[in-house]
Amino acid sequence: MKCLIADDDLMSRFMLKEILNPPFNCDIAANGEEAIIAFSVSHDRKYPYKLICLDIEMPDCNGHDALFQIRQIEKQLGVPPDLEVKVIMITALDDIKSVFESFNNGASSYIVKPFDRNKIMGELRTLGLIA
Fold first, then answer.
1. Would the pLDDT of 45 be above 90?
2. Could you tell me the sign of the dihedral formed by the alpha carbons of 3, 111, 69, 58, in that order?
C-alpha cells in the first residue's frame, strides 16, 4: 500500500515512516503544496495513496488547505466516497476549532502529537487499513 507523510518537521516524518513502513510504502512531503502535487501525481500514474498523514501547521500551504484541495481533486476525478484516501491529521494542535475544521474538510481521523506506534496502528485498524 502507498502512503504520503506530509509534515514540515523532519523528526516527525522520520518517526512516521519508521512506524508505517511496512505495511506502507511511504512518500514524503515537507509542506502542503508538495502533498497536493504528490497526491495529483499518484492519481495521474494510476497508483493513488491509501493513506495520507497530514500535519496542520506547515509553511506555504497548511494541512487544512491541503486537505480541502485534495478532497476537491477527488471530486473532480469522480472518486467515490468509499474509495477516497484516508487522511489522518497528525498535529500538535489540540483545540476544538482545529479538530472541527479538519473533519469539516474531510479528515478521516485526528491524532495529537506526540504520537507513538500503538496510537498510529490503532487508528489504522479503526480505519480498516490493517487487520
1. yes
2. negative
